[in-house]
Amino acid sequence: YLVGSPDDEIHYFAIVNSLMIVVFLTGAVATIMIRTLKKDIAGYNEMQTIEEAQEETGWKLVHGDVFRPPQSYPMLLCVLVGSGAQIGSAFFATLLASMLRMLNPIKKGQALTAVVVLYVFCGVIGGYVSARLYKFCDAKAWKRNTITTALAFPAVIVSMFMVLNIFLRIVGAATAVSFLTVFLIFLLWGCVATPLVFVGSYFGYRADKIEVPTKTNQIARFIPESPYYASPPISNILAGMLPFGSVCIELFFIMSALWLHQLYYIMGFLLAVVTILGATCAQVACVMCYLQLCVEDHRWWWKSFFNCASAGVYLFLYSIWFLASKLELVGILPVMVYLTYMSMISLAFALFCGTVGYVSCFWFTRRIYGAVKVD
Question: Rounded distance, CA 39 to CA 328, Å?
Answer without folding.
Answer: 56
